[in-house]
Amino acid sequence: MDITTKKKFAAKLSIISNIFLTLLKIIAGIMSGSLSIISEAIHSLSDFFASAITYFSVIKSSEPADNDHPYGHGKYEDMAGFIEGGLIIFAAAYIIYESSKKIILGHSGSAENNLGIIVMLIAIVMNFIVSSVLFKTAKETNSISLFADGEHLRTDIYSSLGVLLGLILIKVTGYTIIDSIVAILVAVIIYKTGLSISKKASMHLLDHSMPSEDIEKIKAIIYNYSKHTKLKENSLKARQTGPSTDIDIILQFPENTSICECHKICDEIEKQIQNLYVNCSISIHAEPICYKSNCQNCPKLLIKK
Fold first, then answer.
1. Which of 38, 41, 161, 171 falls 20 to 30 Å from 189 in CA-CA distance?
2. Where in the chain is the domain with CATH 1.20.1510.10?
């Protein structure tokens, strides 16, 4: 199974799962009158929209580069992750609003919640299975949109556990106000996840540099060839674009180095970097350390040796 097929399968699985759970929670919420279950239904509905966006982004990001998108379509996945984060935040805000209104006005859910308990147990099991598939596929394909979708479902697991605990407490104590309190706690968890996903996706959209530890790994590979070449100061750039990594490097060679030698060293460095980042695009520019008799860089380079 190739990368694109794996990503499509995971995205489709998420869509089907979320449709089923949304309908199940809506039915249980209406029948029990539980605000926390209805809040969970809203959460699953946002999961469904997020999964649909993820599927669309997976299809678009797999398209090859063209005249309008010479660097490919990878940012579709970043945009999908950003939108998913926004949907999660919106769902959290709505749940907090409705729950607060219930507490202030003194309206609570029903204490008849056996159906809700069963539904929450089903939701926890299903979301655990589907999120595991999403995380595994996201790791294998370096897909931020699938990772965001997996995080979306993981928050659903935590929130479902919270709702389940609340329903059990209502059943034991009879205090139905617990329903609204649990719904607010669930919303806080949802909000934090949405904020985290949006922040990560926006960093990719704004071409934020890769983490410093990744930059150091690339530099370490280049420094292994310090006898033959030097990394020009501030000339290593790396960014994440959807599922791929873009890396630009400028290397300096002694003026008597042949083109063949330069090419061979650049190829070796490129292969070692690709072993670290499978889905990456690397551009290495080679230039002479000194090609003018009055080059001012030469004394600096000699001092560093």
1. 171
2. 3-205
- Enumerate the CATH 3.30.70.1350 domain ranges in the chain, comma separated: 212-304
**String of DSSP letters for 142-189:** T-HHHHHHHHHHHHHHHHHHHHHHHHHHHHHH--THHHHHHHHHHHHH
Distance CA 142, CA 242 (A): 8
CATH of the domain spanning 212-304:
3.30.70.1350
**CATH number of the domain located at residue range(s) 3-205 in this protein:** 1.20.1510.10
Greatest mean pLDDT range, 53-67, 160-174, 255-269, 280-294: 255-269
Tell how far CA 41 is from the center of its chain. 23
Q: Tell me what the mean pLDDT of segment 200-214 comes to.
A: 67
pTM of the model: 0.57
